[in-house]
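Dear Dr. V.,

Thank you for agreeing to look over these. As mentioned in my earlier message, I'm a first-year student in the group and I'm still getting used to reading structure tokens, so any feedback on how I've presented them would be very welcome. I ran two proteins. I've put each sequence directly above its structure. The first is here:
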Amino acid sequence: MNLIIVEDDKVLSLLLSKMIERLGYEVLAISTKGKDATQKIKELQPDLVLMDIMLEDEIDGIEVMTSVRSDALDIPVIYITGNSDSVNYERAQKTGFIDYLIKPVSFQDLKQSIGKV
């Protein structure tokens, strides 16, 4: 399985990358910005996306996945966010996520979520 990590916190993206590799999966790309993430997801078409909601530019993670879905790409997504508010959760639900994890995320949480794919 190959993944793309979209996370604006570089330390957390490195940590997630190490967890993914420990699980035996490959990280195809890491992105910190919505526009870049949209392009990489559409181009590389990974098996799974780990997506933060708040990103470095004006496009958030939910908008990225909405754009991906509008191109009829049914790529699974796991949201990993510091936002536990119901507004973002409800917006994210419309993109058909596999899981919605609240930071900080443990290795076990991530393993369990990826197991749902």
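The second protein is here, in the same arrangement:
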Amino acid sequence: MTHIVIIGCGIVGATIAYQLSKIEGLKITVLDKQMPAQESTGAALGVLMGVISQKAKGRPWKMRRMSVQAYHSLIPELEAKINRSIPHNRQGILHLCFEDNLDKWQRLIDIREADGWPLEMWNVEQLSDRCPQLETSEVKAAIYSPQDLQINPRELTLALVEAAQQNGVKFHFGVTVTQYKTISHPKNEFSCRQVYIKSLDEGKKAPALPDVDWLVVAAGLGSLSCLQGINGGKLRSLELKRKSNLENKFTIVPVLGQALHLQVPALLGNPDFQPVITGDDVHIVPVAENEYWVGATVEFPNDRGEVVADSSLLDTAMARAISFCPGLAEGTILRKWSGLRPRPEGQAAPAVGYLEGFKNVLLATGHYRNGVLLAPATAEAVEKMIVK
């Protein structure tokens, strides 16, 4: 039986585990220092901007198309398997356009229509009629994507873990990797054959793991650091090998995002039409009756490499949300939070492929702002590399 070890149980690692758990002949073990759905996943808004994305062709669009398509079947599949609902919004995404030049959007509408993914351009009158909660004085038009959706990332990840467990996947939380055993091959190639772990709880003993046939690293910002000892304690140059045999050196840097949870006195707009609304990179996400998430900021490290949340940037995002949805001003803030997104440098996001020099070590990381969106496409890519 083929044994696969996955490091990381955010949305990407959990999706890979569940995807692979449906294939006969695979034994799957998932490791994480924390409980599932922490870090980037726990902070995400779950806005799946696939069809409405300006990524019109190539790998970025193919991954988005595959993932959006997958979510429409994955959600009911998981709900049936775990016998509970997963909070999500199928009423689409509405993008507010504040610029006069709408040609790029018309081109995208034409491209998507030819590909079977409809988008609609609404004028201001149509927008006001369908979303009366919006202030439209700045708006030139709106683009509506009926097939894009939003999902609660934490609940989705927990559902994936539960469903994968039902399929026989073993999860070990509160553990860390202490050592890798590797073997060498001709042409300066290696394979990882053993992963040794220890419990972070001194009172517990970590289980011994079987020999490894494939190692999948999906640990987000921790992906590169957890591979420090992959070859006898010496860090090889961490690179991704693509099918073209091009090798791209990269690092992963943290980009902070802040968001908040609001409760308003009354539901905003039409109770029968509550899409995610986005404008100027600010998202308004309906999550419950009279409740909304608003976010998120994009904050890069300073000159010292530190990432510290700037409260003024969240205030600016909230002010912008209120400017086109004034009813939010009456809301009470229930919660504020922040999280770090893994952004690759020297490599397009996400970084999915073989670790340089290794025949059986795969990276599935660096998704930046699209981890939830691209998790199904990433899982499919990993499956194709393992199941040949």
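From my reading of the second output: The mean pLDDT is 92. The two ends are 15 Å apart (CA to CA). Does that match how you would interpret it?

Kind regards,
E.
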